[in-house]
Specification:
Layout lengths: L6 H8 L3 H8 L7 H13 L6 H6 L4 E6 L11 H15 L5 E5 L22 H10 L4 E5 L7 H9 L3 E5 L10 E5 L1 H13 L7 E5 L6 H16 L6 E4 L6 H11 L4 E6 L2 H14 L6 E5 L3 H8 L5 E4 L2 H18 L5 E5 L2 E3 L4 H19 L6
Parallel strand pairs: 1-2, 1-3, 3-4, 4-5, 5-11, 6-7, 6-8, 8-9, 9-10
Antiparallel strand pairs: 10-12
Length: 379
């Protein structure tokens, strides 16, 4: 087996000192550009590859935390995939790199408190996390921007103290974050509009369960949906129901709207509205009779699609969002690779023909989260 080329080999071949080679290979200042270019050319000739795993053994241990809503209750529809992406990125790129993993699940859209498994190893409460952040003992954090338990000013203070922050789902630009990874929500809205208008006549009305306008992803999907209709001169009447929390009052609003006789197609912007819409379609007797597009991939939505309640699902890809945000964080902490600004991940349209693929992926996600947090969190 060919021995790995080391920094000493590059130094010997180039004729420069180990210090100069280290500076050149790590993009640091202290040598001329001519020297840097000569060293880099030798490194390419020798096919030098940095040994990040070995370097990490000589580096101070890093501590990173994932701070997302728990998977309890109604959070179980969307957030398991977010956690799965975070956990997988760590397992593949940080586990053997002298990085300690912490996880802080909290309740979303209600009181922000720790979930029931707070005593489990590696799982910390919000109060404990806040204390660690204030003390500067956390090196990196991946945070859900939509439900952040920290204000933008608080995050900016933590970043000023040395925290490296990446975000998912919604940007908080003034927080000082390194990067934010999210779906292209306007494109998602346009995709839904294109699916629907390609399936119904121009005189058919459309019901959109539009969630909460204050939630970035919901509003983005709505904007993209409306823009598509305007730009393509679609004359369909659109009903909108604004609700997000699953309760009887919001369900009844959706049921009443679904029952309007002129409604030919329905869609929604979130997993929670998708659940209420599914129940309303069945209760009204209109399931399978009007074209319906659900949001996100989880067990109940998969079952609804099998029963033809939904003809398509839109996958906003929370797994890819969290995986990418964690990857960016680890690359910065361990390899000094910088990725600033907004990173957008693509969405996916689920059809009956490819549903089996998403069914397997969803089962894997639930199994992964259950392993890390325990079955009590999966209701």
């Amino acid at each position: 087996m060919k021995n790995r080329v080391t920094i000493k080999d590059v130094a010997a071949k180039s004729g420069y000192s180990l210090g100069a080679v280290h500076i050149a290979l790590n993009g640091k200042t202290g040598i001329s550009e001519e020297t840097r270019n000569k060293i880099l050319e030798v490194a390419r000739e020798l096919d030098y590859r940095p040994n990040f795993a070995a370097a990490s053994l000589n580096r101070k241990s890093k501590r990173i935390v994932g701070c997302f809503p728990s998977v309890e209750g109604n959070n179980r529809y969307y957030y398991p995939s977010l956690w799965h992406g975070f956990q997988n990125a760590y397992a593949e790129q940080g586990r053997d790199m002298n990085v300690e993993l912490l996880q802080c699940p909290y309740n979303s859209f209600s009181e922000l408190e720790i979930s029931s498994d707070a005593e489990q190893a590696g799982v910390i409460s919000l109060n404990a996390l806040r204390a660690e952040l204030e003390a500067g003992t956390i090196d990196g954090m991946v945070l859900d921007g939509n439900t952040s338990p920290f204000t933008e000013a608080e995050l900016a203070q933590f970043v000023a103290q040395g925290l490296v922050l990446t975000m998912v789902d919604r940007d908080m630009e003034n927080s000082g974050r390194l990067s934010c990874v999210l779906g292209d929500y306007k494109v998602i809205g346009a995709t839904v509009a294109e699916l629907i208008t390609g399936r119904i006549a121009s005189y058919g009305s459309i019901l959109m369960c539009a969630g909460e306008p204050s939630i970035y992803s919901h509003r983005g999907i709505e904007i993209g949906f409306d823009q598509y209709l305007r730009e393509h001169h679609c004359e369909n009447k659109v009903y909108k129901v604004y609700s997000h929390t699953i309760n009887e009052q919001n369900y009844q609003k959706i049921l009443e709207a679904v029952s309007e006789p002129d409604v030919a197609a329905v869609c929604c912007v979130s997993s929670r509205t998708s659940r209420m819409l599914e129940m309303a379609l069945e209760a009204s007797g209109r399931a399978g009779k009007i074209y319906a597009v659900g949001s996100d991939v989880f067990a109940e939505n998969i079952d609804a699609m099998k029963r033809n309640v939904y003809q398509n699902l839109i996958q906003k890809n929370p797994y890819a969002q969290a995986y990418t945000a964690t990857e960016v964080l680890l690359d910065y902490l361990l390899k000094d690779q910088k990725a600033h600004g907004i990173i957008k991940v693509g969405s996916e349209v689920v059809f009956h023909s490819n549903l089996v693929f998403y069914e397997k992926r969803s089962a894997s996600s639930l199994q992964k989260v259950s392993h890390h947090f325990g079955p009590a969190m999966l209701i």
